[in-house]
Amino acid sequence: MSLRLAPTLALLLTVLTPLAAAPKKFFVYFGTYTGAKTESQGIYRSRLDLATGRLSPAELAAPAKDPAFLALHPNGKFLYALDESSGPKRTPSTGLSAYAINPATGALTLLNQQTPGGPGPCHLAVDATGQTLLVANYSGGSVSAISLQPDGRLGALGSVVTHTGSSVNPGRQKAPHAHGIYFAPDNRFAFAPDLGIDRVVGYQLTPATAQLTLLKSGTGVPPVGSQSVRGAPPMSVTPGTHLPPGSGPRHLTFHPTGKFVYVINELLCTMTAFTYESAAGTLTSIQTISTLPPGEAIPKGTSTAEVQVHPNGKFLYGSNRGANTLVIYTIDEKTGQLTYLENVSTLGQTPRHFALDPTGTWLLTENQDSSTVAVFRVDPKSGRLTPNGPLVAVPAPVAAVFVPALPTR
């Protein structure tokens, strides 16, 4: 049975269709932190050579404040960035930025800015039709939907859904903290891991109007009175798929077949596997496994961050901050269950993010506290990683997005 393409890979292949051949290079845009402790000035850009894995020195692509996560439009022409430090005390019309991408030079041109709909945005994603941008607001414990214009500009704020509830960790889970937002492969549903309430919250999206509707846990049917939109009263507890108490779900990824979902849990350093029933948008837990070597206790100061599945569907990767490692699992493609393979060093400190290039040949780790990016070659048969070339300096890197680069003459 053939695999369904992973959303990111499918998006990039769509972008590549007009080109005479698959590109030999990608622009890689890095989101960063720009606080007083770093030298970063905004979004940086490098070129990745697919043949050699060489990553060119990073250069500033656009000045920006704390562009801690980036998202690419399905047509590959526009890039979106958030300002993680934005909140009620900042200018109301800022917090999100839209950029036009020059496919020949990689230059970014600011189009406009808009509110993220809540304080502390931390993650964003564009739906497959290119009509809606979704944002997870960590500090606000909410998810927002913003309309997108045909020219790539940010339009009006369509809806905001505010989560409610808490969980068992008094230091991190006194309130909701939406930490990511992801579209299902068929674009009908979106899912937000909420670190504060130990749930993955599901939504139905109407892209044409940027409207979100909460899904009832287990059925995919919108519950009555569950939506906190445009001032409507919130529920006492937001519905969603439960994880073990204290897990702190952070990010998730879909398997290329669309049958499985993997959630990385920040606080307990675990990975939870789910089966996914696409008709109703239902997640069913099948396994929870450590992101550390078998039997190893969680070292002080260690927490997880990013998770991605390889485009071939055979391997899953997750990052451990503090331990500064990537965990690698093999995936049983029939059951979705994981088998631990190994942990490898990220060659830097605090891997807040890592990214597989769309071909699955190279993996880049964004090491926030050492201000470096490491490139690894991926073995497509074993999933193992081999360091490739020197580290590349990028100030406080925390996100990466790949965009095909037109051939230079």
Sum this structure up briefly.
It is built from one helix and 30 strands. It has 409 residues and is mainly beta.
Layout of strands and helices, then pairs:
Elements: H1 7-16, E1 25-32, E2 42-49, E3 59-63, E4 70-72, E5 78-82, E6 96-101, E7 108-114, E8 121-126, E9 132-137, E10 142-148, E11 154-162, E12 182-183, E13 189-194, E14 199-206, E15 211-214, E16 241-242, E17 249-254, E18 260-265, E19 270-277, E20 282-290, E21 303-309, E22 315-321, E23 325-331, E24 338-345, E25 351-356, E26 362-367, E27 372-378, E28 385-387, E29 392-393, E30 397-404
Antiparallel strand pairs: 1-2, 1-30, 2-3, 4-5, 5-6, 6-7, 8-9, 9-10, 10-11, 12-13, 13-14, 14-15, 14-16, 17-18, 18-19, 19-20, 21-22, 22-23, 23-24, 25-26, 26-27, 27-28, 27-29
Describe this structure in words.
By secondary structure, this protein is mainly beta. The protein has a single domain (7-404), classed as YVTN repeat-like/Quinoprotein amine dehydrogenase (Methylamine Dehydrogenase, Chain H, 7 Propeller). It has 1 helix and 30 strands. It has one helix at residues 7-16, and strands at residues 25-32, 42-49, 59-63, 70-72, 78-82, 96-101, 108-114, 121-126, 132-137, 142-148, 154-162, 182-183, 189-194, 199-206, 211-214, 241-242, 249-254, 260-265, 270-277, 282-290, 303-309, 315-321, 325-331, 338-345, 351-356, 362-367, 372-378, 385-387, 392-393, 397-404. The strands form 7 sheets. Strands 12, 13, 14, 15 and 16 form a 5-stranded antiparallel beta sheet that branches. The longest helix is centred in the first third of the chain and has 10 residues, at 7-16. The protein is globular and about 50 Å long. The termini are far apart. Residues 1-20 and 218-236 have low confidence and may be disordered.
